[in-house]
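Exercise: predict the fold of this chain.
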Amino acid sequence: MWVCHQESRRLLAVNEAALLLYGYRREQFLELALEHLSGGEPMGDPRASQDQQLRCRQLKKDGSSFEAQLICHPCQFQGERVQLVLVRDEGGAQQETQLRYRVLQQGSLLEAAQRELETFSYSVSHDLRAPLRHIDGFSRALMDDYGTLMDGQGKEYLTRICQAAEKMSQLIDAMQQLSRVGRTELSLEKVDLSVKAQVISLELKHREPERRVDFAIEEGVKAEADAKLVRQLLEILMGNAWKFSSKTPSAVISFGSVELQGETAYFVRDNGAGFDMAYADKLFSVFHRLHRADEFEGSGVGLAIAQRIVARHGGRIWAESAPGAGATFYFTLRGN
């Protein structure tokens, strides 16, 4: 906006937004003749006693022009009768409108793609389960009814078919979990992560009571998070620590928190197999594994789910490791 004298049309004042728009310094702008801004075109009646609204072309210092909407308001300024002129860059407004439209359009396309992906995931998982059940069921029926007629090689083939069907079923379950994490609405609350880690450690011990694993869980670690999702996150990270330390004689799994660069980072650490940090960027990719399936079982989806859970909380997740020296997974959560 600027202020001009009604009689002399001399410019008396101007704000920073107008200086930025027109490209002048303040002293340069106030020395201009009003007609210079419009290239000689009239800009309303200078003696009007009521507000005026008009559209006209305005010139910048560099010689370029823009379409502007002007609102001229008669008032008093420093004891003089003046016009207070408000300027709106119509081109900028149009670009803003176009940008807003494009954002809305892209948002709609993204929502449509998400719905299609959810429909596809649901359809694939359900359409695949039926034939998998048939493969597994008929293979077991063959084993039960005709097992005595088969040699060892035939029985091994059927066993492998059943194992492959079970593996496929696990992959479908994992992909469904990955899809659900993206759709779940967050319900943030204060969660005691230490308690959840303790419960998960007991479940792991109960599942494989023959293993001797020491858990070092820091007490009183809390975070603002979705209780169900953060439980799933800890299950994945502690489950991986349990799995990859299975060949370590004196396995130790730790959970706790540290302050890193002004934010709280939570960690799960083990002294198991570890991995080469050269491949760290592939850790959170779906179906990507850093160890052979015959070394450690898994779907290759768990860490992708973990990353999505952390991302839903506005945090980040990363790992530090070395082959044979265990691994530490760190993660942060929004607001912590």
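Check your answer against the key: Helices lie at 16-22, 26-30, 34-38, 90-146, 152-183, 193-207, 227-244, 302-312.
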